Request: fold
Amino acid sequence: MAGAAPAADDGVSALIDEAPIGRLHLRILTVCAAIMLLDGFDLGLLGFVVPAISAEWGLPPASFGFALSASLIGVAFGSAIAGWIGDRFGRRTALLWMFVVGAVGSLLTALCTDLTTLAICRFITGFGMGGTIPNVIALVNEFSPRRRRSFLVVVVYSMAGLGSVLASVLAGPLISTLGWESMFVVGGVLPLVIGAIAYFALPESVRFMVASGREPARAAALLQRLSGRTAEDPLLRQALTAQQAGAARPAAASSRLLFAGSLRWVTPMLWVVFIGTQALVFFIGSWLPTILREARFSLDVAIQATGLYHLGSVVGGLAISWLASRAPLSRLLALLYLLATVSLLLLGSGVRTVSVAYVLAFWVGFTVVGASFCLGAFASTCYPDALRARGVGWGLGVGRIGSIASPLLGGAALAAGYGIDLIISTLALPAAVCCVVMVAISRVYRSRPG
Reply:
């Protein structure tokens, strides 16, 4: 029909799905993992340097609220727009351009002398780095064999969490010796270096090239290398014939197809889960130390518990990525949200023991942030090739409603004098909603043809 999404030929998909993991796969995964690590590094930088900038500029920390939110707003726009660019011009093209934009934004941040330019530069950084995420997910998805797809996508995506950890490790020594500007210089130079490596080492998605009929010779060579088959192999010849026949097909599908067929239910439900998940992640990440201090824990305990929360997020992402190759990811996500609901209810039930607070903080990170790493991987499986980057990008972009609003709501609730236990227990509500919606999505997803 007119406006239908081009899709990679079934023969091409079968060759990719059956291919053994080889050096080309490892090269793609390594480069994409490095990109996601620096993505997480850059997006979390400002939070680590606000105290130093605040002291140098003579401004209270509270005045940096809009600058902190600017990068999240940039991520929302970047994710949505770069998803369309990736589906229209290629995942590699969109990824490289957006990564460079994010790097330039970070370098410009080092030159800022006031809050207005700081917010603008953080928006540019968020726009660029946010735009890399859906295209990294789409690229890894489309190069990975089916049996390892969810595992590899989640592993690469979870590198963003390690990027935040890296920023926390480097912040102290770099700021004390070279000043706060050095953090943003590192956050700009490293992505430019990795971007240059990616330009030469990262191929375009062969499924995208087949679907759009672009560069038939390069697509043929790449598919032959991926599959390990000779040019005379019947299955490879059949796939290449289909690729040549697809040259006249349109290169991009209408965004209305995000709501066509069963996707008219899946897409809005995914958006609900994205909003709920990002609201939980950013609320807890922003306010957990304060909440624990208000619950009469010492500052050291609050910091250590927050560290365990971040550690739990990394462990959760890796553990769930391993399980994803052995169980449907939709059911794993539903289970994670159920466990997150229980953990938040327990955390809000009046915990006053340090050891219990540590365990629950770790487990909340494991379930909530672990689920956020897996959600992008699951979303990438819900869309056909021609809509994949757009579907994931729009989901991430819409989800930023939760990440932007939840820290503000948390501050308002604390200022209004609501009890700490009530605030934490209320967080169980979006977790429970995400659980129910994921169960519904899994039912629609299983009933979908193909």
Notes: The two ends are 19 Å apart (CA to CA). The chain has two domains: 10-248, 256-447. Residues 1-9, 246-251 have pLDDT under 50 and may be disordered. The domain at 10-248 is CATH 1.20.1250.20 (Growth Hormone; Chain: A;).
